[in-house]
Amino acid sequence: MLKARQLFWQCCTGSLALAILAAGCGTNGSGTSKAGVSTADGGPSFVVNVPEAGVDGGTPQCIVDSGQCVDTTCPGGVSTTISGVVYDPAGNNPLYGIVAYVPSTTPSPITTGATCTSCNDLYTGNPIAYAVTDPTGKFTITGVPDGSNIPLVIQVGKWRMQYTIPNVTKCTDNDTSTLLNAKLTLPSKHTGTGPGVGDIPAIAISTGGADSLECLLVRIGVDESEYGGGPSGEGRIHIFTTDNPLSGPGANTVPGAPTSSTALWAMDSQILPYDIVLLTCEGAETDDAVPQTLYDYATKGGRVFASHFHYAWFTDSQDAGTNPFPNDLAMWTPTAESYLSADGTIDAVIQQTLPGGGIFPRGVAMYQWLGNVGALQPNNELQILQARHNALVTAADTPSLPWIVADQNADPANQTQYFSFDTPFGTPAGEQCGRVVYSDLHVGAASNDYGGYQTVGPGTGLINADAIVPTGCTQGMLSDQEKALEFMLFDLSACVIPDTETPPGNGITPQ
Questions:
Q1: What is the pLDDT of residues 457-505, one digit of tens each?
Q2: Residue from 487, 355, 481 nearest 421 by CA
Q3: pTM of full prediction above 0.85
Q4: Contact indicator for 451, 472 with CB cutoff of 8 Å
Q5: Which range marks the domain in which residue 477 is found?
Q6: Is the domain of 265 the same as that of 148?
Q7: Residue 163 sits in the same domain as residue 303
């Protein structure tokens, strides 16, 4: 007797077809459930093992509260479908890898904080049918109930919006933008009324004197009311500040935020309440870093985005001889390491193959997505301002996966601009639950936050010393390199799946 559905990430080569095998198109004459199929280009898929109809643990066919069920009598092999495009909270950029599903019961509340849980634990409400957005942001869910007020959940990690489709017509496709007369977006705030209210992960941001990563969320569309100073803030974005003696202060809030070294990473209990931690470049090696705290956080399912000088967390420069992170994450080069081209500008290549060969599905999707949102140059590369070259991921650095690499014209060439690694170390890839990203991409160079960079050398600069977040953040569209960071942020938010394997073969069984 099958008591749990198995959820598999799969990716087809070539066009990298995005498929969703959604169980629940009803029963045939023999009384056995069949799986409905929906296909789009470019990403992962869920495959749901369906037991015999009526057997304990089978995929639900009906919405419990209303009794609305999947209609299996559509002629000609067609099905009732729901389709749409999912956008970021600002409604500007369509998003890749977002799960869309119809639940049979009300989804459970989301609990914030680092936890080592399976992917399926996130998608509650005993889903009837699923789909995942492709690199154009599109999805189609096949085999859904018809009728009025059909629930629809849009989710990636702990970002979640719940919609109600006013009417779903059976045996045809139902376009959400037409039926809702609005775009499907991820939430912009987690309290209040009106559009954009949903679940947002708890995010801690340590500001720094050399970048404005904290402003990225404003331009992505997160409401300014979500920002607050320190752990007592009512919103989901908690700011911690720094004042590195070798550079200068990071942005602050009003009232003022506590310092990162005393209130965010001094001990595990301070950092574990957060789902995601963003570490903005300080302009010098991290002031008073405690690598063991970050190691523990990532091991327990936390997600970390570390920029430029935060390489210090992963090297012996902070904690000589006792740093818990393995020494084969990358070949590290300390100090600023700025490119000497104008504004430190380079072009970089999106990696679409795994280090050992074979297709890297999410790298292919990132390349396609950046092209779709107009972020690539005519040479199909990503232009990066204020680039750095502190990390080089080689074949020997087996825990790490490069995503963006400087092209052959950069000096030096082939340096890693963005890479990730999953945790706990030594755990099989399908059982890992934490993720760390290191990036030498900066936000402030292309955004003019806080009145613009104060140049201190070729390709380098600092933010204004009196910067206030979020009011000092520039509004408007994302720059090209910010679009790459947006893709990275939502990938970081998502449940962890193996990076170095080509599916199928990495099934995840819900608890």
A1: 544 567 788 899 999 999 989 999 999 999 999 999 998 988 754 322 2
A2: 355
A3: yes
A4: yes
A5: 203-493
A6: no
A7: no
